[in-house]
Amino acid sequence: MQLFFIFCTIFFLSLTNVSADTKHFIVSVVPQMQTVHIQKTWGAFLEELSKQTGFSFELKHYATIPLFEDALESAIPDIAFMNPYDSVLAYEWHKYQPIVHDNKKLVGILVVRKDSPIKSVEDLQNKTLAFPAPNAFAASLYMRALLEQEEHISFVPQYVKTHSNVYRNVLFNTFPAGGGVNNTLMREPLSVSSKLRIIYKTKQTASHPICIHPRVSKEVIQKIKNTILTMGKNPAYKALLNDVQLPHPVAADYESEYLSLKKLNLKKYLVR
After folding, report:
1. pTM of the model
2. So which residues are the signal peptide here (predicted)?
């Protein structure tokens, strides 16, 4: 009788956990911006997404991009907003699937102060340059590869954790130049963005996707995807979506949009 009671208890708890898992999801966001900004903007977005889907979303924040990537490798988030190259790694690690991204292409940028005498990347030979983190895709990983391989620039990378920190370090003359992306620079206050000038760009790629771990059911994934796409058609959600870099969300496809990034041969520049 006691064994039967234990069995029933375990069975009941397992059902409870399954139910919780299908309703409650951990969401993480690549920390390009300051923590307060991410918590405010993504908190508001997930609150609305929760209302429309009936699911519960818990925002789990990581202070740095390397910590965020460690979480992806450990499959901690159910859902994550990540850079394009991290989507390649996350797919290799655990088959995370991209579901949506903004229709605007992602472009890595190298910025200097507007009044800087620096005119081109040749002027940065042997300089120390600011980057968010080693594996920040277009702002650092791809940018460093292009500067070294195509532009033949020797430089010392200095990692300052976020895109926001890069822009401010350049603005305050701590470094002569730094790497960012179009989607974060345009979201900086004018007091910052108007005082910076772009001197170099990477080739464009598909933008940051929202990716979901395969442990989440296909039905749930489809509901989340459809809800975001529907929100994108409603002007009432324009500001909300813009704040999370999804002003014009479209369906994402791993094989046609992200798989080709493996051909860039960036693994030698990865820092793990």
Report:
1. 0.85
2. 1-20
The values of phi and psi at residue 127, to 5°, are: -95, 165
Two domains, one topology: 18-104+207-259 and 108-201: yes
Name the nearest CA neighbour of 98 among 208, 203, 22, 242: 208
pLDDT value of position 271: 86
Q: Write down the architecture of domain 108-201 according to CATH.
A: 3-Layer(aba) Sandwich (3.40)
Q: C-alpha angle 148/81/188, rounded to 5°?
A: 70
Buried b (16+ CB within 10 A) or exposed e, 227-261: bbeebbeeeebeebbebbbbbebbebebeebbeeb
- DSSP state letters, 197-262: EEEEEPPPB--PEEEE-TTS-HHHHHHHHHHHHHHHT-GGGHHHHHHTT-SSEEE--HHHHTGGGG
Contact status, residue 60 vs residue 77, Cβ threshold 8 Å: yes
Average pLDDT over residues 62-84: 96
Q: What is the pLDDT of residue 5?
A: 38
The radius of gyration computed from the CA coordinates of the chain, to the nearest angstrom, equals 21
Helix/strand/coil for 127: strand
Q: Is the pLDDT of residue 126 over 90?
A: yes
Return the structure tokens found at 251.
């369906």
CATH architecture designation of domain 18-104+207-259: 3-Layer(aba) Sandwich (3.40)
Distance CA 213, CA 75 (A): 8
